Amino acid sequence: MFEKGEYVVYGSKGVCKIQDISHVDIPGVDRNRLFYIMHPVQNSEQTVYLPIDSNKVMIRKVMTPEEAKRLIQDIPSIEVLEVPNEKQREASYKAALHECSGRSWISILKTLHQRKDERLAAGKKVTALDERYMRVAEQELYGELSVVLGIEKENMHDYIQEHIASA
C-alpha cells in the first residue's frame, strides 16, 4: 500500500501525488471501500480515484533519483522494440506503454527515432501514429524523471542528451 503524500506512476495519468487515502462519497460506489485520492502532477486540477485493492491499472512508486540516473546512463544499451510487421506496430507500442516502465518508454522512443530517421532518409513523412506514440512516451518518461530529479520537464531532453554524451 502506498502512503499519503507519496508520488506514484499511475497508468496513463503519469506521475500522481497521493493526497489522501479515504472512503469516497460517490453515487454507486461502495462507501466501505478505500481509495487513493490523487492529483496528476501535470494537471493538479484533476482528481483521480483508485480503489486501493484494484489490480486493473498499473500503479507503482516513482523511481528513486539513483534509479533515474542509472536509467539515463543505460539508454545507449536499451534495445529498440521488436515490431514483427506494420500491422502489429501499434500493438507493440501499446504493450510497451502498458508496462509503465522507464526502460519500455525509452525502447519506444529509440524505436521511433530510428524509424523517423529511416523514413526521412527515404523521403517519406513520419506517420501520425509514430508522432502520437513519441509524444506519449516522452510525456511519461520526462514527467517521471522531472519529478524525481527536480528538473523542469521542458529541460529533460537536453539533460538526458548531456548525460549520455558525457558517459
From TrEMBL:
Pfam families: CarD_TRCF_RID (PF02559)
Location of the CarD-like/TRCF RNAP-interacting domain: 1-113
Domain of life of the organism encoding this protein: Bacteria
Listed Gene3D superfamilies: 2.40.10.170, CarD-like, C-terminal domain
InterPro entries for the chain: CarD-like/TRCF_RID, CarD-like/TRCF_RID_sf, CarD-like_C
SMART domains, A to Z: CarD_TRCF (SM01058)
Protein's name according to its UniProt entry: CarD family transcriptional regulator
Organism: Eubacterium ramulus
